[in-house]
Design brief:
By secondary structure, this protein is α/β, with parallel strands linked by helices. It is 48% helix and 16% strand. It is built from 25 helices and 20 strands. Helix 5 packs across helix 7, helix 5 crosses helix 8 and helix 16 crosses helix 17. The longest helix is centred in the middle third of the chain and has 58 residues. The relative contact order is 0.11.
Length: 751
């Protein structure tokens, strides 16, 4: 049968049907068993990622600056105001006290009192400097750490710079200055690169509007400190962001204050200062309220006295003109009632005048005073109608007596209230008091190392799971022989990966570099290996497949490099030779063939020399240590391998080989890399395709079959090589990432 009369092994309709079915397994939803299996297959990758992320989380927790918390307890009483004349006003509610505690007014006084806008920081080594310093200061408090790693200019623990004064102009607030320590208690002050001046502990440096005085200093010469006077608003907001105030329970008036700080002592001082300022401010506020009330009362006393004196004078004058007329019993009763109502109206009028300074007219309290005054006015109008029934002389006497008594009582009451306010203001007590002074929490509250490490472990597991799923998603390599058979060709053998073969290949490489001779092929050195047993099943399948073959030649090719073609060819030849056949293996990979590595000897006087006419067939054929097994190496690497194979000498050489040997196996280069296999395949009756587990994508195999079919070369069957035991159905392979669009680089080996 001529090569041109051969038909492709994959019918067009079968290719079209299989093209739509070959990736159906990827669209069946979430395979939980497959995911678990993939995690098991990549257990070392998962363990490595989890370990790395966990270690990173631990390192992050260790390098973070510890944060401490201080707590204090205040009581904001909600009792009514006990100031004289002010019983109708309630004290400020607790919710308002919370906001007042965090106000800029309170915090700014604390900033000023504790000099919290002054920032002094030792310059430490990046990343790990602060960690070393903390460890040293915990283990050896009060001592000065030596320099580490030869870095003399950094602070490594125990350094201290205590400033007596540091003043800068307003426009220079927020700018960082550098204090460099010199020998003998000296220092230098820098503004960036500009030297402002030198000084000593206890002395002053005055330059450029900056005034610096150092009270105490402990550091190695060359150590630098960064000093900064922060803007007041920045310092206030920094404290507000770290200060938390909440009421314990509902309407209890018990306020819990807490603040976070890297220095537990400073946290305590800040909380105590804020509490003290707030208590003082509360007293000052109540005292100011009493003073304001007293001032108002004093402003009313002159007019009240004038009204009292005027009323008395008018009453005395009337009695003199009327010859000392006495008030009747009925008029006396009316007078008593009218005076009581007028006194109450006078008090309400005084209260209304006070409310005018504090409340709007639509305030409920203001409206309640107006309502009481209106009711008393109606009662007084009713009494006035009763007074009109009296004789005119009695009416006039009653009116003048009422005015005199009311004005006298008003004046007397104002004096009494003023005296009471004077006494109350002198002994006033605020409505806020400190229940528990500030105390530190002991150990740091942040970072929470256990939680960070737990989060890191969870994150590592999630990242590992995501990576494994991504690899599984991107993987398109063949891991099931059924996938190849869907393309219409049988799989004659699935060859498991052999650890012993790796040893043999390494020995072959050493031999190629001039070392000892190569180890025997796997079929000889480990005949019971599962890989060799699989090749024996391939031998049986080929025995029946080649019954109708036109010759005894077998071509072995593959879609890509490193699929194991040479391994299959040499060991398949070996087991045939062990069965008593004369077998010839031809290395037709004229670019990178390394059959001579496996079977011994050099590559000179091989197929390329035979095709070029430089040697005879007998000179090219070499015997091996295994009786019955012979091979022809690749020969010298030619500049034009494909053109050399296309010469008319190739069919004659193959025919001669078939006549002299029972079986001829030809190892060819991968088809998707070069076209040599398509040239050789035209003169071979049986062609096998080798694909590698977890490496070749199904599209590669499909494209290889199509190219063979386009060249009129039928593929008898396939071998799935390198099978690995996996817990998942799908595993990680090289897929498209390694081979791109199947354009392979296949350079020749150097001589």
């Amino acid at each position: 049968m001529s090569p041109s009369s051969r038909t492709p092994s994959i019918p067009a309709d079968a290719q079209g049907a299989n093209a739509g079915q070959q990736f159906d397994d990827n669209d069946q939803g979430i395979d939980l068993l497959g995911i678990v299996g993939a995690l098991i297959d990549h257990k070392w990758l998962v363990a490595s990622i989890v370990a790395i992320v966990t270690f990173a989380g631990w390192g992050y927790a260790e390098l973070q600056t510890p944060i401490y918390r201080a707590d204090a307890l205040l009581l904001a009483e909600t009792k009514t105001n006990n100031l004289p004349g002010m019983a109708d006003f309630a004290s400020i509610p607790s919710s308002t006290e919370v906001e007042l505690l965090k106000s800029r007014t309170v915090i700014s006084r604390a900033v000023t009192g504790l000099d919290l806008d002054l920032q002094v920081r030792a310059v430490r080594a990046p990343i790990v400097g602060a960690w070393f310093a903390r460890r040293f200061e915990r283990s050896r408090p009060g001592e000065l750490a030596p320099a580490r790693f030869g870095l003399e200019g950094y602070a490594w623990g125990g350094e201290r710079l205590d400033l007596h004064r540091f003043e800068v102009p307003a426009e220079m607030r927020g700018r960082s200055f550098v204090v460099e320590v010199l020998a003998d208690d000296g220092f230098r002050l820098f503004d960036g690169e500009l030297l402002l001046g030198d000084g000593f502990v206890g002395g002053d440096v005055l330059a450029g509007g900056v005034s610096l005085s150092v009270r105490a200093m402990r550091a190695h010469p060359g150590t630098r400190f960064v000093v900064r006077r922060a803007p007041e608003l920045e310092a206030i907001r920094a404290i507000q962001s770290r200060l938390a105030i909440a009421e314990r329970g509902k309407q209890t008036g018990v306020l819990e204050m807490s603040i976070l700080d890297s220095d537990p002592g400073r946290a305590i001082r800040v909380l105590d200062e804020i509490a003290r300022i707030f208590v003082v401010q509360n007293v000052e506020r109540r005292s100011a309220e009493a003073a304001s009330r007293l001032e108002f009362l004093r402003s009313q006393l002159p007019k009240a006295r004038e009204d009292m004196e005027s009323a008395d004078a008018m009453l005395n004058a009337f009695q003199a003109r009327a010859n000392s007329i006495n008030i009747s019993v009925e008029a006396q009763n009316l007078l008593t009632r009218v005076v009581q109502i007028d006194n109450r109206l006078s008090e309400l009028q005084l209260l209304r005048a006070e409310l005018d300074r504090k409340l709007k007219p639509d305030h409920p309290r203001y409206q309640a005073v107006l309502t009481q005054a209106a009711e008393l006015g109606k009662q007084r109008d009713a009494l006035t109608s009763d007074v009109r029934s009296l004789p005119e002389t009695q009416q006039e006497l009653l009116r003048l007596s009422r005015d005199a008594q009311v004005s006298t009582k008003i004046y007397t009451r104002l004096i009494e209230i003023a005296q009471e306010l004077e006494l109350a203001r002198a002994g006033i007590v605020g409505s806020v008091q400190v229940v528990d002074p500030a105390i530190s929490s002991g150990g740091p509250v942040e970072p929470k190392k256990a939680r960070l490490i737990l989060v890191a472990i969870v994150l590592g597991v999630v990242l590992a799971l995501g990576l494994v799923l991504l690899l599984r998603l991107l993987n398109r390599s063949i891991e099931n022989p059924d996938e190849i058979e869907k393309l219409g060709i049988p799989v004659y053998a699935t060859v498991p990966q052999s650890p012993q073969q790796r040893v043999i290949e390494e020995a072959a490489r050493r031999a190629a570099r001039g070392g000892v001779g190569p180890a025997p092929i796997l079929a000889v050195s480990a005949g019971a290996d599962p890989a060799i047993e699989s090749l024996r099943s391939l031998r049986t399948g080929l025995h029946f497949a080649m019954i109708d073959a036109p010759d005894n030649r077998i071509m072995i090719s593959g879609p890509s490099p490193d699929v194991g073609k040479t391994f299959v060819a040499t060991n398949l030849a070996g087991i045939h030779a062990q069965a008593g056949q004369r077998v010839l293996v031809i290395d037709a990979d004229l670019r990178k063939g390394h059959l001579h590595w496996m079977l011994g000897g050099g590559s000179e006087r091989g197929l390329s020399n035979l095709l070029a006419g430089d040697c005879s067939f007998d000179d090219a054929v070499r015997a091996t240590a295994l009786p019955g097994l012979h091979f022809i190496p690749r020969g010298q690497i030619p500049p034009n391998p494909s053109e050399l194979l296309m010469r008319a000498d190739l069919p004659a050489i193959l025919k001669l080989a078939s006549e002299r040997f029972d079986l001829v196996i030809i190892d060819t280069p991968p088809l998707l890399a070069v076209t040599d296999a398509a040239i050789v395949g035209r003169y071979v009756g049986t062609s096998l395709l080798v694909a590698r587990f977890g490496m070749n994508a199904l599209r590669e195999v499909e494209l290889t079959l199509r190219r063979f079919a386009q060249n009129g070369i039928p593929i008898k069957g396939a071998v799935l090589n390198g099978i690995q035991r996996r817990a998942s159905r799908y595993g990680y392979g090289y897929g498209y990432g390694r081979y791109g669009y199947y354009q392979y680089e296949y350079k020749a080996d150097r001589k």
